[in-house]
């Protein structure tokens, strides 16, 4: 059986090659789609307006992110996340309400579990923190092949 140590195009793959990675998820009051360059301006505005809120979110304890950056630097990050998704090394989703970016979800390798998951919502949508966490936990249980996930409770 394939596992997280199998390589995909020379990179570590987080999931087996035959796993169909979800390309969307509909949650209560939000939807997920793979994060990419098309989200740049909306993503940048969402987290830049929410730095202190995100730093106070479980899973972002060290203050290393977010740090203010230009929209151009953010674009480079989004391109990197999209490449990780394509190579199955990690999966980042933009959290949307209509066309508005209200947060992000990151699914990446972990040293102690099948995957490390973190998420944030913008400060103006703080009421969605628990709602999105609960829905994403359920989605991880039902639609992903992980048995153990690190995802800090809200």
Can you describe what's shown?
It is a single chain. The protein is an alpha+beta fold and 154 residues long. The chain has a single domain, classed as Gcn5-related N-acetyltransferase (GNAT) (Aminopeptidase), CATH 3.40.630. It has a six-stranded mixed β-sheet with strand order 3-4-5-6-7-8, with helices on both faces. Strands 1-2 form a two-stranded antiparallel ribbon. A hairpin with a 2-residue loop joins strand 1 and strand 2. Helix 1 packs across helix 3. The chain is globular and about 35 Å long. The chain starts with 6 loop residues before the first strand and ends with a strand.
Q: Just name the CATH architecture.
A: 3-Layer(aba) Sandwich
Q: End-to-end span in angstroms?
A: 34 Å
Question: Radius of gyration from the CA trace?
Answer: 15 Å
Silhouette: globular
Q: Notable features of this structure?
A:
154 residues; alpha+beta; Aminopeptidase; 4 helices
What's the short story on this structure?
With 154 residues, the chain is α+β, with helices and mostly antiparallel strands.
Topology overview:
Elements: E1 7-8, E2 11-12, E3 25-27, E4 30-34, H1 40-48, H2 51-55, H3 71-86, E5 91-97, E6 100-108, E7 115-121, H4 128-143, E8 149-150
Parallel strand pairs: 7-8
Antiparallel strand pairs: 1-2, 3-4, 4-5, 5-6, 6-7
């Amino acid at each position: 059986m394939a596992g997280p140590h199998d390589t995909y195009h020379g990179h570590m793959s987080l999931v087996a090659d035959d796993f169909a990675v979800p390309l969307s998820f509909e949650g209560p009051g939000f939807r997920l789609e793979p994060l990419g360059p098309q989200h740049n301006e909306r993503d940048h505005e969402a987290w830049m307006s929410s730095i202190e809120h995100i730093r106070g979110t479980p899973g972002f304890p060290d203050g290393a992110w977010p740090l203010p950056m230009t929209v151009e630097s953010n674009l480079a990050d989004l391109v990197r996340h999209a490449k990780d998704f394509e190579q199955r090394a990690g999966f980042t989703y933009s959290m949307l309400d209509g066309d508005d970016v209200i947060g992000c979800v990151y699914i990446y390798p972990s040293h102690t579990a099948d995957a490390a998951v973190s998420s944030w919502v913008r400060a103006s949508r703080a009421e969605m923190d628990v709602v999105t966490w609960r829905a994403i936990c359920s989605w991880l249980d039902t639609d992903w092949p992980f048995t153990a996930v690190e995802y800090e409770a809200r």
